Amino acid sequence: MEEVKNEIIMSENSIATDFENSNKNMYSTIKNDGTIEAKKKIYNALNNTSETLSDHVGEVINLRDFIAHKAIYENEETGEVTEDTRCILIGDDGTSYSTISKGITSAIQQIFGIFGTPDLWSQPLPIKIIEKKSRKGYKYLTIEVVE
User: Fold this and answer.
1) What element of type H or E holds 105?
2) Range of the domain at 102
3) Is residue 124 part of a domain?
4) Which of 1, 26, 47, 68 would you call most buried, defined as having the most Cβ atoms within 10 angstroms of its Cβ?
């Protein structure tokens, strides 16, 4: 009879490390001045998103703040578990819009490269959410800066 061995595979990161580094997996332009009010604002923007960005294609959002963090999700079609960047756009009216979209991630990176980050703007930046089609026919979201 063949002996069956169970192997335990240890992660290079301990659970303590996961929690100690939790603030390194997030980017926020909301000013964190150390007050409990600022921290609540960031936490609530992360966990109580008002809207799904894809429901607002064609609409203009006056972008005031932005948060990005790593999110683990299951692909509904394949069942594959993937880690990706979740973006939260926050309008000047306080409405927050979330998406996991490489197109939006790329557009925000370009906006920050050209216009700087929202914490440096004197006023919100009006952006329009648009849907495009790739050469292979896949739909994706991106951003147009409007006048």
Assistant:
1) helix 102-115
2) 52-145
3) yes
4) 68
